[in-house]
Design a protein that fits this description.
Blueprint (H helix, E strand, L loop, with lengths): L2 E12 L4 E7 L1 H4 L7 E5 L10 E4 L2 E4 L5 E9 L3 H8 L5 E8 L11 E7 L6 H10 L4 E7 L8 H6 L3 E6 L6 E2 L3 H9 L7 E6 L2 H13 L3 E5 L15 E6 L2 E6 H4 L2 E3 L5 H5 L4
Helix pairs in contact: 5-6
């Protein structure tokens, strides 16, 4: 069951004028969290902003004895709520409800885990990478951004043993182009008898392209969707997405049945048109 805690801000690492990593003391959430789950955050007391915001749990923070002590959030400030999180100071209290949602299922050897992240779509993969490492699963992070200033925490993944494939649209880091280009080459060169599971999070067009590649090369592919959420617990129906089920298509609540979905089940046309 999720818990609602007034989490103290432990630290606020401002990476750039847009991005920061906020560390919160929330051991009750940290000990329950699984890779890919999220929290609903009340960014300020009072009514402005009125609604909580969903954030993927980025890291599980641990005390010197190794016990779960808190979580971190990767934030990009784009509006009132995210700006408040960017400006938060140590000692501030931020209400957090979680962990919520369906997590990723980490694969074990001989399979490999390939993570595909676009921008802040990196957020659910820190905990997944740790879970893959714990299983001894070889992993690759395909990580793309508009430019070098949109890429962070590469050493974190490298230290876990991940192979890094970096792309930027402006060519300022790694290969110039979209992150799906090296992914497609890797899938095309992967023998059919060597299992790999693909996990993706980022802009909807990127995830749709990854889903298409998963179908083309017959690889299990999972996406973490990011629809607008009002409550995170299924009560407001603001986060519905259309998925394919036996007998037809159905609308489901992403906060309950997601945010992680089998990419082949998502009706991407409906998602692209904003019907969520």
């Amino acid at each position: 069951m999720p818990v609602d805690v007034p989490a103290a801000v432990v630290s606020n690492l401002r990476l750039t004028p847009e991005y920061n990593v906020l560390t919160l003391a929330a051991p009750e959430i940290a000990k329950l969290a699984a890779p890919g789950q999220f929290v609903m955050v009340k960014t300020a007391p009072g009514l402005d902003p009125l609604l909580r915001r969903p954030f993927s749990i980025f890291e599980i923070m641990r005390d010197p004895a190794g016990a779960p002590a808190g979580i971190s959030l990767l934030n990009k400030r784009v509006g009132v709520g995210t700006t408040l999180l960017y400006q938060a100071e140590a000692g501030d209290r931020i209400d957090c409800l979680g962990p919520l949602g369906q997590p990723f299922a980490p694969v074990s050897p001989p399979a490999e885990g390939w993570m595909v992240a676009g921008g802040v779509g990196l957020a659910p993969f820190a905990t997944l990478a740790q879970a893959l490492k714990a299983r001894g699963t070889p992993m690759t992070l395909f990580y793309g951004g508009r430019g070098a200033t949109d890429l962070f925490y590469e050493s974190f993944f490298a230290d876990l043993g991940a192979t890094l494939v970096i792309t930027t649209e402006d060519g300022s880091r790694g290969e110039q182009g979209r992150v799906t280009s090296p992914l497609e080459r890797a899938l095309a060169g992967r023998p059919a008898d060597r299992p790999v599971t693909v996990y993706a999070c980022g802009p909807t067009p990127m995830m749709r392209a990854v889903a298409d590649l998963g179908v083309r090369y017959a690889r299990a592919t999972y996406v973490s969707l990011e629809p607008v959420m009002g409550c995170g617990m299924g009560g407001c129906y603001s986060c519905v997405v259309r998925v394919t089920r036996p007998g037809g298509t159905h609308f489901v609540r992403s906060c309950i049945e997601g945010p992680v979905f089998d990419a082949t089940a998502v009706v991407w046309d409906a998602l692209s048109e904003g019907h969520h």
